[in-house]
Amino acid sequence: MTVQPTPSWPLATEHATGRYNMLLLVTWSTSEAYGPGDILEAYSGWGIMHASLVVERMAKTRALSGAGRELEGWFCNVVKEA
User: Fold this and answer.
1) What DSSP designation does 52 have?
2) CA 33, 41, 56, 77: dihedral to nearest 10 degrees?
3) Which residues, in sequence order, are CB contacts of 16 under 8 Å at separation 6+?
4) Domain ranges of the chain
5) Residues 17-68: pLDDT tens digits?
6) What is this structure's pTM?
């Protein structure tokens, strides 16, 4: 399953570095995958932060629904209200 918080940074369960159904944040440009606790700088100007905070920030700019919101909430360890 793949969810698109942004076009260039999907959340995906199908990635070579992940275990079966492990949800990862992946960058299309390099195919590098990050778990919720990994540190990265997704975009210049955002600064360095945990991948879970990156996804939370991305989700604020793009309305996810249904399974996408559930996956984003799990990745961020945050329960989102509709």
Assistant:
1) H
2) 60
3) none
4) 2-76
5) 655 667 889 888 888 889 888 999 999 999 999 999 998 888 877 777 777 7
6) 0.77
